[in-house]
Every structure is written in C-alpha cells, then in structure tokens.
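Running co-folding for zinc ion.
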Amino acid sequence: MKFKLSIKKTFFSLAILIFMGCEDSNSSYSNNTIIDNLNHSDLPGGFSRFYEEYTDVYISGDYVVVESKGIPNHPSPYWGTSHPNYQNPHSGMIINPNIITEQNFKFYIPLIPSISSNISSTPLGPIGVSISGVPLFNQYAGPNNQPLDSEIPSFDIYDGHPQQAGQYHYHLEPKYLTANDSSTMLIGFSLDGYPIYGPKEQSTNQYPSNLDELNGHTHATNEYNDGTYHYHATADSPYLIGGFKGNYGSLNGGGYFTN
Ligand SMILES: [Zn+2]
Ligand SMILES: [Zn+2]
C-alpha cells in the first residue's frame, strides 16, 4: 500500500514539474506550504476533508497519518510584525509573547475508530488536528485542569494562539474554517479517530440537543452515511472534546503521553 502510494506521489510530482511549473504562485503562504501530490478525495470518510495545501495525509497500517507544519491558513498577530500574514491585535486582545513556529507533526489517527471501555481524559498538548493541519488542544490552560478562562483573552480573532514552543492551536471552534465554509462542517479529527464537527448539525442546521459529557453523540453525517460517533464544537467547555471516547492513536509515532 505504502509502496503504491509512493509511486503515485512520484508520478504526480513529475507531472506537476512538467506541466505546472510553479504551483501556488498566487498563494501568500507558499513558503510554508507542504505540497501534497496525493488526492485527498481518495481517502475514506471524513479524511478526504483535509486541506491538501496544508496537510499530507496517508494510510499506514491501521492508522491515517496526518503530517502538518501546524501553521494557520489565516492572518494572526502571532505571525510577528515582519510576516506578510501579520494582523494587528483586535480590540481587547492580550497578546502573548509567542510567535507561530512551523512544527513537524505526524498525527497517527486510527483508520477504524473503536469505542474504549474506559473514557480517557485528554492530555495537555495536541489532542486532535483540524482539517487545515492546526492542532486542537483541550479545555484546560494547564496542569490540574486549570480552566481556559485566563487564556481566552490571548486568542486572536480566529480563536487560536501559540504556546511557548510556537505551536499554534485552537481550543475552541476554528472560526476561520467555519466562517468560510459552514458551521456544520467537519472541522477535524480527535486522536481517537472520531470526527469533530462544527456547532450545528448538517441535517437540521440546528444545535445538537443530546450531546454527552464529551461533546459527542452518534448519527449519520454527510461523510459517514452509516452513522458514527462524533464530537461537536460547543460555545462552552469542553468546547471540542471532553475526553477520548475511543482508543486513541499517537503523535509523531511515539507513546502519546511521552510527547
Ligand atoms: Zn492554548
Ligand atoms: Zn451530530
């Protein structure tokens, strides 16, 4: 499988070199872009939704691997004043001193998720990934379940901010994505393999009324016609994922909690 994918990638690389010359010449993000020559529409279910410009997504054994630099596809004060995507802080924002820094994320997400016999609380750090490759963090600001309230003033207008190592991330609904697409869209995946949707349901365009304590429930979606457990973004804590419903994968191929 992997060998076949490599061949396909090589073919497309050559094709792009020969026929296209310069890809993304109109993109202001070209310096930070992973050029992914695989067609994401070949991936199963919601995995086809990952943005090809910002993520490299492939199947490896029982996992879907999502590689990303973790940088946002939108302006932010956190790019730093000399960056072309710099944006002035919005009124009332208390900017933190960190600057968006490229990462080398490899999210190993179960290809076929399975409900765990024990719900696991999510750790600090990346607990999932948005379809634009930006990591998703949990509902806490630090150890011992410190509430997020103290950090929220440092969020940019798209509700993201970088931590000390420059990892830009969202604790809340990725507003740039939902504003440009839909509040019912698939916004990303939890590390347990279950998809995360925007705040409203695709079928009704209404807020769900029966979410469990993890922000999840089960029904059919556009990406999963047979139904799946999934999470929804909410305006209140836990915002994205209250805990892992399923058996979770890993980050960068390591034991998850050692990262
Ligand atoms: Zn944070
Ligand atoms: Zn739902």
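Result summary
The chain has one domain: 60-258.
The CA atoms of residues 74 and 134 lie 11 Å apart.
Job closed.
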